[in-house]
């Protein structure tokens, strides 16, 4: 992967927002892979003021993942988060932005449906990624196959603890999720993994320099011909 060390998250946001703008200028139907959580927020914030002269009405988007068994209207469902943090502020067409369906009805088809929708859109041009402290990308927790496609997974206790800040308590964090697989992610044409802060340093080092291992799903990015890792000094601190 290409490593870019930036002074802070805002600089990362500006850098990645500029790359997204270049893509959309060249192809108004650009397909973005959207991440949730804290990490990608500076990208979405940097995009907003830069979009004044850009027509985003045809941009398509696919979220990485969703919790299973959470009401879609819950403020922390990724459907709600993508609407609030991405679709509304950036003025995207909500009909062109998809989030995996984590509702219990039809969960057995949801993964296949999502894969089909990505293929029909022509594949993802740029996939934003954060990384979990346990090394997950998307919600592909340790042990995920590098060939995996969109499917239901169980969140680790580590991830549930990490995400408890978005809920009233750790008990309120869903136990299951539906996530693009590592194989799905690897099909995107450009991967952009962002990480900020000391807490991500170990996972970043493992993803970038560690052995390719299902124990650190982020290491799958080493299989991708065009992966960019944008990190601050703290997140880069364990790189050789
Ligand atoms: C979110 C996702 C996760 C997060 C990761 C880091 O859609 O797929 O992999 O990117 O859990 O979360 P934050 O950015 O909140 O530290």
UniProtKB/TrEMBL annotation:
PROSITE patterns: GLC_GALNAC_ISOMERASE (PS01161). The active site is at 65 (proton acceptor), 134 (for ring-opening step), 136 (proton acceptor), 141 (for ring-opening step). The record marks 144, 151, 153-154 as: Part of the allosteric site. It catalyses: alpha-D-glucosamine 6-phosphate + H2O = beta-D-fructose 6-phosphate + NH4(+). It is an enzyme of class 3 (hydrolase). It holds the Pfam family Glucosamine_iso. Keywords: Allosteric enzyme, Carbohydrate metabolism, Hydrolase. Allosterically activated by N-acetylglucosamine 6-phosphate (GlcNAc6P). Its EC number is 3.5.99.6. Pathway: Amino-sugar metabolism; N-acetylneuraminate degradation; D-fructose 6-phosphate from N-acetylneuraminate: step 5/5. This is Glucosamine-6-phosphate deaminase.
